[in-house]
Amino acid sequence: MLREFIAELDATGDLVRIRQPVSRHLEAAGLLKALDGRPVLLERIKESAYPVVGNLFSSRALVGRALGCAPDALVGRLAQAIDHPVAPPLVESGPCQEVVQTEPDLDALPILFNCAQDGGPYIASAVVFAQDPQYGRNLSFHRLMVLDERRLAIRIVPRHLHAFLERAGGELDVAVCIGLPIHVLLAAATSVEIGVDELGLAQALAPVPTVRCQTVELAVPAEAEWVLEGHISTRELVAEGPFVDLTETYDLVRQQPVLTVQRITHRHDAIYQALLPGANEHKLLMGLPREPTIWRAVNAVCPCTGVHLTQGGGSWLHAVVGIRKQQETDGRAAIMAAFQGHRSLKHVVVVDDDIDVHDLTAVEWAIATRFQAARDLVVLPDEIGSSLDPSAEPVTRRTAKMGLDATAPLGQARAGYTRVRWPEVDVTAFFR
Ligand code: MN
User: Fold this and answer.
1) What pLDDT score does 58 carry?
2) Ligand 1 center–CA 299 separation, angstroms
3) Which one of the listed residues 245, 251, 330, 352 is annotated catalytic?
4) 381, 400 contact by CB (below 8 A)
5) pLDDT value for 203
6) DSSP letters of 31-82?
7) Quick one: DSSP state of residue 325?
8) Residue 30 CA, ligand 1 centroid: distance in Å
């Protein structure tokens, strides 16, 4: 669980503890950004009684450590969980309800105000739980902009929660959970079909006991730090934004529904989990769950040996795909499959399995030595793009896409493309 992981990081000296008071207005975000890649505990927040933890899962190594597997094994673990979800157990009581606030006050929480032009303080680590009579439970991430002590503007893209809300006539009970372990966060960030309970994916990765909420008909992780019980209404729409997204650029301001909180439950000494938009943790949570879907799509056309949504591409727009090539057309086929496996993907490089997809210098070497633009470049001039890409068409978000087949030819020609084997020497023998 989250607390065990924080304690473990602390014990091994990997948690940066900041004891001096920090303001949740800009200062906390600046600190998290400056320390990106390193887990941080802000013990004292000037405007709140609760501490803030951030950057907990801000590298592949940290995510792997939290899940007890090597970073390279993450894509396989996730794919396995997606294919074999397990129903989470329901228990009688849980620490997320140790303290009950019947008069909620969001202002008491250390919700960060991240960047100067932001529309307000934002909760970005929140997973929204909802229930539909036919489809069952749904988990999804939604950024929440604080409007006042009880109301939040909720950004809802037209996916599952949007469908639930429409089916419920524009009035939907929800529970917002903050302070969750990595397996729940990753599950909530994963795109599965409507009707699949994302919490089942989490349970397939690690146990996640649930408890019933008090004012809404929902079950949520018993170990959550915070649960905000409330409902979403589309009767009133409000301006949501500006907000910095994955690409570290401002997203558009849109009219969005209001989420009103009617009850807050939390742990004694609750910790507020911050997620800094545009920082590594945000990128990883967005990108990691897409790697298995690309993996699966590519595997349908040829053996896939690795997928990496790179940080420079916001862990969203750029992928490196490794294949074990069996036909000359496999490179191109893998490019098209990768675009199918992740609809927002804009640029993809396909490499042979002798290239480590996580080693960007090796990927560049493959482009330098195996790729000919006139022959190996695939350009799709007019596709549906990501709303996050400021270079896409302003309203329609149409975009061009590009795939680079940086695989070497098969057969005898391949010999000339293989990196030489250097002599093996025991270096330490020469320093004795
Ligand atoms: Mn869903």
Assistant:
1) 97
2) 24
3) 245
4) yes
5) 98
6) HHHHTTTS-EEE--BTTBSS-EEE-TT-SHHHHHHHHTS-GGGHHHHHHHHH
7) -
8) 33
| CA–CA separation, 13 and 56 (whole Å) | 13
pLDDT per residue as tens digits for the range 32-67: 999 999 999 999 999 999 999 999 999 999 999 999
What's 125's DSSP letter?
S
Question: What six digits make up the tokens of 123?
Answer: 């909760």
Half-sphere exposure in the Cβ direction for 151 (13 Å, CA): 12
In contact, 112 and 121? CB cutoff 8 Å = yes
Tell which residue, 261, 254, 260, has the closest CA to residue 237. 254
136 CA from centroid of ligand 1 (Å)? 9
Residue 240 contacts residue 153 (beta carbons within 8 Å) = yes
Phi, psi of 234 (to 5 degrees): -95, 5
State the distance from the centre of ligand 1 to the C-alpha of 195, rounded, in angstroms: 7
Beta strands in 302-427 (DSSP E): 304-309, 318-323, 347-352, 377-384, 398-405
pLDDT at residue 83 in the model: 93
| 148 catalytically annotated | no
For residues 356 and 362, is the Cβ–Cβ distance under 8 A?
Answer: yes
For 138, the enclosing helix (H) or strand (E) is: strand 136-141
Specify the pTM.
0.91
Distance CA 250, CA 248 (A): 7
Mapped to the 3 state alphabet, what secondary structure does 291-315 carry?
HHHHHHHHHCCCCEEEEEECHHHCC
Question: What gap in Å lies between CA 74 and CA 86, rounded to an integer?
Answer: 18
- Provide long-range contacts, Cβ within 8 A and 24+ apart, for 25-28: 25/113, 26/113, 26/114, 26/115, 26/116, 28/52, 28/54, 28/110, 28/112, 28/274
Residue 178 and residue 181: Cα distance in Å, rounded?
Answer: 10
How many Å apart are CA 22 and CA 51, to the nearest integer? 10
**pLDDT given for residue 161 in this prediction:** 98
Residue 131 CB partners (closer than 8 Å, separation 6+): 137, 138, 164, 173, 217, 218
Token couple for 54: 């951030």
Q: With a cut of 50, list the residues of the chain below it in pLDDT.
A: none
Tokens of 50: 């609760």
pLDDT at residue number 388: 84
